[in-house]
Amino acid sequence: MAISLSNFLFAICPLLSLISAGTVTHDFEVSWIYANPDGSQNRPVMGINGQWPIPTITATKGDRIIVNLKNSLGNESTSLHFHGLYMNGSTHMDGPIGVTQCEIPPGSSFTYNFTVNLIDQPGTYWYHSHQRGQYPDGLRAPLIVHDTDSPHKNLYDEEIVLSFSDWYHDLMNPLLAQFLSIANPSGAEPVPDSSLLNETRDLSVKVEPGKTYLVRMVNMGAFAAQYVWFEDHTMQIVEVDGIYTEPTDADMIYMTVAQRYSVLITTKNTSDANFAFVGSMDQDLFDTVPEGLNPNVTGWLVYNDANEKPAPKELQAFDPFDDYTLVPQDKEEIYDHVDQQITLDMKMDNLDDGENYAFFNDITYVAPKVPTLYTALSTGANATNPVIYGANTNQFILAENQVVEIVLNNDDPGKHPFHLHGHAFQVVYRSEEEAGFYDPNNHTAFPSTPMRRDTILVRPNGNIVLRFRSDNPGIWLFHCHIEWHVASGLIATIIESPLSLQSQLDGRIPANHLQACADAGTPTAGNAAGNTKDVFDLSGENTSPGTLPAGFEAKGIVALVFSCIAAFLGMAVISWYGLSEIKK
Ligand code: C2O
């Protein structure tokens, strides 16, 4: 019996895909190019290989991902973080500068090489620069890990990827200089100029009637959470931050920066009309709303190009779905005991340089001279002693295989989206706003199968309680994902099982990583100050400015600044006058 070629190909196709389920390689050269994504301001953006938006990385569960990065920016160092991937056994590929690697200076190269298979990790992720303040200049894109075993794979026909983000007309460097300034003692964050969908506006998404789509959504913004809704179409949530959920209906979701949602959307049976969908920036985050700001970005589910694209209807109020009620599809039960607890009391305040900083337990993060990973790898048995990691890194050492609980008390009237690298956590508790600090003896019952994700909102003056197992040796940041607050120091460093980390990685840091350090002049051994002889001598380490005398407040600083300026002007006038007198 003859077998046709197509039958033959069909028969070996699964084999071919198994074989090709190997390695996804990208050569990325990062450089500045111009773009005008909202149609009102042409500006420099960080492109890859001369293109912007930069490419989405797509892989299949089990693949190895290799990114050969070359920094051709000319004027800024860079790095890449693969947000949400656990990086088991490869914390040195995680990306944050000063933490797991050195900065990659202009002209240098660096290779990221890791697998996504050690723990099965399908789902919706993204990658972005983890150089301070940099990704909102455009170095950010979705990263999708496909799953041939998805529990939802029979529920949809096609996939759509949508990124949402705020957008600034100015570059981050000048905006950061304005934000972290004695002239901004209250720490008011720059307000975005507009908002983008797939890095553009007025996006049309072609759909066919009578189909179900898996819509993967990522908020890649710097600051603004987004309310998202599709007119006349229900979303069924099936994944958050890479964790499959029991399918759950929602009319509107609230997506903080760095969060992801996959939803199933079933289209109408006819092509009579097109439908708007909207991302609307949460303006509660903005200290002042500039006149004329359009907080919305609109896209359309286009059934028929010949029909109009209707303007979205006005909403009376925002009433988003509460992700705290989601149930993970694997029904992992709540960790019922805690071995190790970390309490983080966060606040915003001024230091004696007059600038506004963010604090955990009264310490604002300042990157050490030696990346924390290299300190852990070069200090032998002392790597379990928190002291060697410095005075301003908010470091916590985790023992191996413990149930760890993070209690975060938000002593600030703002909303903050917190992200943990290297893990997804159980959200065992989230208070309403104004609830104050967490009281273990007074809270509503914990869910028995809590939602897991890697980025979670804490409400104004509220608290959250998160749990995870320390089963992933590495150096993992825990930080607010509002990029302004990363710059003002809202970061803690989790140093997980440092001795196991030594046996995993000692001597295995690739030569190109160490070369980037050499190029940047960053030391790669010793304590936070770079001292290799006496790791308990931290003299010369990087620290924050000092605290203000008690009772001194932002208003006082403004008054001081202006009286200094006035005095200075006064003296200048006197000396000018005096000089001209002499000349006469
Ligand atoms: Cu999106 Cu520290 O990460």
From TrEMBL:
Principal location class: membrane
Membrane topology: Single-pass type I membrane protein
Keywords of the record: Cell membrane, Copper, Glycoprotein, Ion transport, Iron, Iron transport, Membrane, Metal-binding, Oxidoreductase, Repeat, Signal, Transmembrane, Transmembrane helix, Transport
Subcellular compartments: Cell membrane
Transmembrane segments: 557-579
Gene3D superfamilies in UniProt: Cupredoxins - blue copper proteins
Record-annotated Plastocyanin-like domain positions: 30-148, 158-305, 365-498
Superkingdom of origin: Eukaryota
UniProt entry tagged with the keyword Acyltransferase: no
A GO biological-process term: reductive iron assimilation
GO cellular component: high-affinity iron permease complex
InterPro entries in the cross-refs: Cu-oxidase-like_N, Cu-oxidase_2nd, Cu-oxidase_C, Cu-oxidase_fam, Cu_oxidase_CS, Cu_oxidase_Cu_BS, Cupredoxin, CuRO_2_Fet3-like
PANTHER family in alphabetical order: IRON TRANSPORT MULTICOPPER OXIDASE FET3, MULTI-COPPER OXIDASE
Name of the protein in question: Multicopper oxidase
